[in-house]
Amino acid sequence: MKADPAKAAAALQEKLSHTPGDPWMLYNAAVGAYAAKDFAKANELWQQLSAGEMPEELRDKVWMQIGNVSYRLVQPKIETEPETAIPSLEQSREALKVAVHFNKENQTAAKNLRFIESVLEKLYARLSRQLVQEARKENSASRAVEKLEAALPYAQQALEMNPQSQERQEEKKEVEKLLAEKLQDRAQASEKRADERQPEKNEWERKEAQQNYEKALEDFQQAKTLTPEDKKAEEGEKRVEEKLADLFDKAGRQDQKEAQALAENRPEQAMDKFEKALENFEQAQAVKPDHADARAGEQEVREAMEQMHLAAGDKQLERGEQQLENRPQEAAQNLEEALENFQAAQTLNPENAAIQPRIDKVEAMLPDLLTKLGRQQQQQGERAEQRNNNQQALQNYEQAEQSFSKAQETQPENQAAQQGEKEVKEAMARLQKQMEQMAKQNQQQQNQNQPPQQQEPRESFESMLAKVKDDEKQREMQAKQSRGQKYDEQRDKTLRNW
């Protein structure tokens, strides 16, 4: 093999063709290809071997050889295309780790593993330094941050390859320090842009200020994480938190003021404004939990919304009670809306003991009312069905089902509602089946009433020939009348014959 590796590899490949399932022959053929520097073929054969069953004594050898050949495949690219080489080098490292795992006495695999890790260490450190140098030349803080954020993982991976290296530790710290500085530069630029906005002018200005403060805050926080000992990042974080919280608080106060102006005549729009104000006050406290004015504003808005919900609920409850006897459908709608308002008020202020009695009162009235309404809708459906108005009947049954279901939501043990729901479901199923059968019968009737389509008689050869002759005569007449070309009977006859 040493005298002529290529010849030996060919001979081993020939033997393998006679015993393709022999793992030892497959291994030896790969060794022959490796010796002949046909690394792609060697890799293919060892990968094939690793995917199937193999003798125990071959296992660590195969994985070691996969590690070796993975390195050889990219060895020429390490200097010129380092980023391209990294995936194969990492594969080489993992394969050699597997080989050592299977056989801790395999000194060759252990030695090769240390070698590959040293190659990766130098490669990662080189890529990190290259990006740091590029970042130092950048005038834009954002572009510098992008390069340093790419450099930091390389520095971390280089240190992982050699955790005891003082040089790698210092390189990682250098990247972190420089990245923190550039993050602070970018944060200060975002903070300045936010300061220049006029949030009281319009919503767009406020959003722009908010977005820039949020970017600044994120950068200051990341810088603080990278260099906890740097007090500038911590000071910037606190400063921007204060500004952002104040921005939310002022927006909340403005929304609150507008809501109060709308409360009397346009309560729905007022409620929307109050909800926006509440959201802004909550966001202010999320940024700065001890923001006193935002906490006070939140409390004021909650109280105002609670009173609006209670006032609306009381009115709807009163109307519902008045409509109970003669207009059960409108009564049910008003009572349901009253219940929603009382529950919303309770969510805003769970401590208000006056709310629960209101809820209890409505919930006590609704089941009987909804059951009664369901029965009326069920009867309407039955009458519509007797008039053969199946579509109207189905609609009435669906309304009844909804009423019975709602009655059980507030009173699950309501047997009358349970029975009514069962009956209307059965009626709906029966009616839908009838409607499907009728539709099918109608379609069959239409098909029977349609006359059979008559096929057009096939054109005879004689009639087709007559059409062709008429076309020829027409062309002859057009040719005679043409100014650009005289009629040539012999030429046209030749064309026709052709």
Question: What can you see in these coordinates?
Answer:
The protein is mostly helical and about 500 residues long. Among the domains are: about 5-125, Serine Threonine Protein Phosphatase 5, Tetratricopeptide repeat (Alpha Horseshoe), CATH 1.25.40; about 290-440, no CATH class. About 80% of the residues lie in helices and about 0% in strands. Helix 4 (about 55-75) runs antiparallel to helix 5 (about 80-100). It is flat and about 105 Å long. The two termini are about 75 Å apart.
What series of H and E elements makes up the topology? HHHHHHHHHHHHHHHHHH
Helical content stands at over 70%
Radius of gyration: 43 Å
Assembly state of the chains shown: single chain
Largest sheet: none
Structural class: mainly alpha
- Beta content comes to under 5%
Terminal residue distance: 76 Å
Low-confidence stretches: 476-498
Record field, number of beta strands: 0
- Mean pLDDT, to the nearest integer, reads 86
* Discrete helix count: 18
